[in-house]
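A quick aside before the break. I want you to see a complete sequence-to-structure record at least once, exactly as it would be stored in a machine-readable document. Don't worry about memorizing anything.
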Amino acid sequence: MTEATLTATRTKLLWLGSWPPPPNVVQAAGDRWEMTGADPGRPLGDQLTQAPVAVVALDDRDDGRALAGLLDRLARSATVAVLLLADDAPTARAMLQGRRGQFLCVAADAPAEELAAKLSAAADLQPAIAALRKELSTAPSTDGAARADLAELDEQLRLAGRLQQDFLPRRMPEVGPLRFAALYHPAGWVSGDLYDVSRLDETHVGFYIADAVGHGMPAALLTMFIKKALQTKRIFGHAYRIVPPDASLAELNADICDQNLPSCQFCTAVYGVVDVSTLTLTFARAGHPEPILIRADGSPVRLSSPGGLLGVLPDATFPLHHVRLAPGDRLVLYTDGLEGLLGRFGDGRRPDATATFAAWAKLPRQEILLRLTERLECAPPDLRSEDDVTVLIMDVERG
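That is the input. The structure line, written in tokens, reads:
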């Protein structure tokens, strides 16, 4: 058999992990599988349609956010995934508990023979999954009663979206030199994004932005839980205490874990408090895109801070960080839907949000939000963001 004939008879196998794959994966693939690595410059969904089986190396990458998105993408595809679980990946293991999807799990260091058996089982499952999806896609159109039910559901979602937006701040507080502005753009009637800004006392302002993993009503309901559960201030009779951001996120995380929600119900967040008397920002981050601080001279700074997804590990911690602000500084918080809105370069890479906001450093905050809104409304269909987009800007105005 020639090499060309052998390649043509192989089943495509997509490898999602660092290249080259480990020896046990290469040996398991053998001559039966034509294994290729995922191309970061191409949409993953397009690559999954060409591969009936994928092998995925799971670790606690990117605070779990990228992992959650990857699992959701795999679950929405017809591809059967063999998941390689590392021993030191508690977040990945926790996120898989109870998650539904065409997944087969195996230890990352499993022998090649065991991996080969998993790949064979995945190949046996794939035709049945593909047939079910085809049957669903070619099912007869709904009758009049079903269409009425869908119309009623659509109206209920529209009303739910209106109620959800009522939980957002109607007017941004102005405390000392701090001024806020926000863009909130759900991908559908309801959103998995949430933000809030509140005056905690005469000299402190608290603000946060959160993003529930997933879309639709489950994500929207989780944002409502976050709105009620996140503690910013405790009142004791005639006294009060402002809750530090690290404690707020730790308590919120424990509350979400205590609810025993489905495994897909995780979220990311950044919560910060500014003392306007000293212009000190105190913040903690939970798996969310890093805040961008644009200094008065236009130089950008990424505010890095460790912290995993909320709702995964009940004992997770979210370290506290302090940053001294100055007049003319700007802080930008955003959800990851913004990254899709910024488009792609010719080689498939996404523009850096830090560079984008640094280039807009001299623009008024409302002008920035207007430009983003125009992109949302005027982008061609293939470049429109499929995710909710929320941006929160805080300016420290000069006196």
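Two observations worth writing down. The chain has two domains: 3-137, 163-396. The two ends are 79 Å apart (CA to CA). We'll return to this after the break.
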